[in-house]
Amino acid sequence: MSTIDKETARRVAKLARIRVAEENLPQLASELSHILTFMEQLNAVDVEGVEPMTSVTPMRLKRRADRVSDGNQQDRVLANAPDAREGFFAVPKVVE
Amino acid sequence: MSALNELTIAQARDALRKGETTATALTEACLTAIEGASALNAFVHMTPEIALDRARAADARLKAGEAPALCGIPVGIKDLFCTEGVPSQAASRILGGFLPPYESTVSAQLRDAGAVMLGKLNMDEFAMGSSNETSCYGPAVNPWKVDDRTLTPGGSSGGSAAAVAAGLCLGATGTDTGGSIRQPAAFTGTVGLKPTYGRCSRWGIVAFASSLDQAGPMTRTVRDTAIMLGAMAGHDPKDSTSADLPVPDYEAMLGDSVKGRKIGIPREYRMEGMPEEIEKLWAQGTEMLRDAGAEIVDISLPHTQYALPAYYVVAPAEASSNLARYDGVRFGHRAKLAPGEGITEMYEKTRAEGFGAEVQRRVMIGTYVLSAGFYDAYYNRARKVRTLIKRDFETVFAEGVDAILTPATPSAAFGLGAMQDADPVQMYLNDIFTVPVNMAGLPGIALPAGLDRQGLPLGLQLIGRPWDEAGLLNLAHVLEAAAGFVSKPAKWW
C-alpha cells in the first residue's frame, strides 16, 4: 500500500499551485493515499510488451497550411481578464 | 396533446410543421415550467431573451418551410459549453463572471439548426462528480421522489437530466468523460447517448480529460436522441480529434429489424453485491432483445475490473494539465493578495479559493501521477492497461458481436448527502459500468427499462462498435419499445 505522508502532500499541493493550510495536510495526505491504493490494483495486470495508448481512435492528425486565419481581437481577448492594462494582462510584480 | 413542454422532440417538430403550435408557444411553456421548478435547481443561468428571439426566428423559418428537425425546439445547454456572451462557468467559482466571446461548435450547430437555448444547466464542477454535489451552484435535484429524501439526479450532467425528466426542456446537451451522460440518464428515467470519441467536436467545451470527453444528447426518447445527435455531430476543423466522417440520418435508420444481430453479455459486469433488481432488469432486457430476434452470446471482457483504477489515473492526469490554465490571469476569479505577496501566492490562493474540494483532489492526484519518479509507475501503466481494455472490446467485435448489453449503473438514484461521509472511491464506483466505454472510445447509450421496488427508474446500457451510433440507436429503439417505460416523476416541486 502506498502512503503519501504530510511532506509529500505539501509538495504535491505546491506543484499543483493550490494553497493547502498546514492543518489540512494530514487529511489531504490520507485521502490521496487512499486513492493511490485503489489505483494500485493496476499492478496486478501484466503489461509486458503492451504499448501505452496515445489515441483511442487510430487517426492521422489533420494538417493545415501555416497561415494566420484569425486575430486582431485584443479587446475581446482581454475582456475577461481580472486585471488588464494598456493592452496587456496585468499580474503582480514578478522580477524584483 | 400533452402540455407543450412535455412533448417529445419528434412530436413538437411534427406539430410545428403542421402549424399546430409555434416555437414561441413551446418556448414560453418551457420558460414557465422552469420558473416553477426552482426547487430542482436544474437551470443555473436563464436566457429568456435569447430564447424568445430564437423562437421568433424559428417561427419565421418554419413558415418559410424547409426548417430542420430541431427548428423551434427548446433545449438546455450544460454549463460546460461556452456560449457567447452567456455565463459559462463549468459550475466552478473559478470561472465566475466569465463571458465567452465565442460559441462552442456543438451549441453553435444546435443554434444553426434552429434549436432554442433556454439557459445553462447545472452540473458537477468541471464535470467531476457523480451526484451533482460538487457544483458551485449547489446540487440539482432529481424530479423523482419516493419518500422524504431529495435524490441526486446523478452527475455530472445532473442538471441536464433533471431538466429533461421534469419537462423543463425537450432535450439537453450533456458531456460524458466516464459516465456523465449515461449515469444521470439512468437515475432520471431518460435517454442519454455518449457518441464515439471524435463524433462530436470538443471545441468550446471546457476540457476535463481531453482523451475521454465527448458531448452527447439527453432526451426523453431514443428517437429524440437520434434527432438531436444528428444536429450535434460532425467534423470540425477546430477540433483535430473530430472525425471527418459523414453523419448518417440517425432517425431514418430507426425501425430496422434486429434479427440476427449478435448481442454480447459480458460476464465481468456481474458484480459482487449488485442489487438483485438490477440483475433481474438486465436479464429481462436480454430476453427482450432475444424475442426481437437478436442472437445472445456470452462474452468476456477480462480487463473490466481495471477500467476504473486506470480511469482514475488517466482522467486526473489530463485534468491537472487542462486545469493549469485557471491561474487568475486571463479569465475568472483572482484572489486578493496581501501586501508583499507575489505571483506564486496569486496562483496558489486563486486556485485554492476557486476550485472545490473534489476538483482540488483530482488535480493533485493528477499532478502526483505525472510527477518525476511516478510517471511510469502510474500514468504509463494506466495507459497500457487502457490499451488492454480497448483490445478486449476489439476482440469481441472481431468475433462478430454487434453490441453489448449491460446495466447502466450499480444502483438507482441515491439521496443527496447520502455519500457525504463515504470516501471518494465509493463515489467513483457509480461509474463502474460506464467508464470502460470511455476508455475504449466507444459509443454507449443508457435508456430506462424499469422501476425498482421503491419506484425509482433503472437503466440499461448498450455499447456499440466505433461509429455505429445508428446501429446502437436502432437496438435501443427496439429495447425501448419492448420495455415500454412510460413512468414519469409525479410533480412535487
Helix-strand blueprint:
The complex is a heterodimer of chains A (96) and B (493).
Chain A: H1 6-15, H2 25-39, H3 74-78, E1 84-85, E2 88-89
Antiparallel strand pairs in A: 1-2
Chain B: H1 9-17, H2 23-35, E1 43-46, H3 48-64, E2 74-78, H4 105-112, E3 116-121, H5 158-165, E4 171-176, H6 182-188, E5 191-194, E6 214-219, H7 222-232, E7 262-266, H8 276-291, E8 295-299, H9 307-322, H10 343-354, H11 357-370, H12 375-398, E9 403-407, H13 424-428, H14 435-439, E10 444-451, E11 457-464, H15 469-483
Parallel strand pairs in B: 2-3, 2-4, 7-8, 7-9
Antiparallel strand pairs in B: 1-3, 4-6, 5-6, 5-10, 9-11, 10-11
Helix pairs in contact in B: 2-3, 5-6, 7-15, 9-11, 9-12
Explained architecture:
The complex is a heterodimer of chains A (96) and B (493). Chain A contains three helices and two strands, in the order H-H-H-E-E. The longest helix of chain A is centred in the middle third of the chain and has 15 residues, at 25-39. Chain A is flat and about 55 Å long. The two termini of chain A are 45 Å apart. Chain A is mainly alpha-helical and 96 residues long. Chain A has a two-stranded antiparallel sheet with strand order 1-2. Chain A is 31% helix and 4% strand. An eleven-stranded mixed sheet of chain B has the order 1-3-2-4-6-5-10-11-9-7-8, sandwiched between helices. The model of chain B has no long low-confidence stretch (mean pLDDT 96). Chain B is built from 15 helices and eleven strands. Chain B starts with 8 loop residues before the first helix and ends in a 10-residue tail after the last helix. Chain B is globular, with a radius of gyration of 21 Å. Helix content of chain B is 37%, strand content 13%. Chain B is an alpha/beta fold. In chain B, helix 5 packs parallel to helix 6 (182-188). The interface between A and B is large, with 52 and 70 residues.
